[in-house]
Amino acid sequence: MTKQTTNHILMVEPVAFGFNEETAANNYFQQRTVAAGETVQACALKEFRGMVDKLRANGIEVIAVQDTPIPHTPDSIFPNNWVSFHDDGTVVLYPMFAENRRAERRADILQRIESEGFSIRRKVDYTGFEKSEIST
Hints:
Helices cover 28% and strands 17% of the residues. It is built from 4 helices and 5 strands; from the N terminus they run βααβββααβ. A 3-stranded mixed β-sheet has the order 3-4-5, with no helix packed on it. It has a two-stranded parallel sheet with strand order 1-2.
């Protein structure tokens, strides 16, 4: 069995994390809560910062990028749904089912990855499948 590990992680800092109406119908983890949106966001931010600190304390390099309040992308802290990075310098962009999740794909995040020393040699872009409603 092959073991795959990394010592670099991309994390998106939440600015408006919360329930996403568009993904709730087909995402088991989307659960409406009685907590106010501000409370949910505060908890997500606290967890995010704590995890970044723990990872860095254990030798993991974390590239932390901040989400943007506009457009509103309530679950953008999961970039693994729209992008993957491969050891040969390939970046793969994936289609997204929910229209409001598609706005999570940001060129500035890829630019930040490059500014941190990662060479993007090739992009594979599957986002065109969104037109056919084929998504991950």
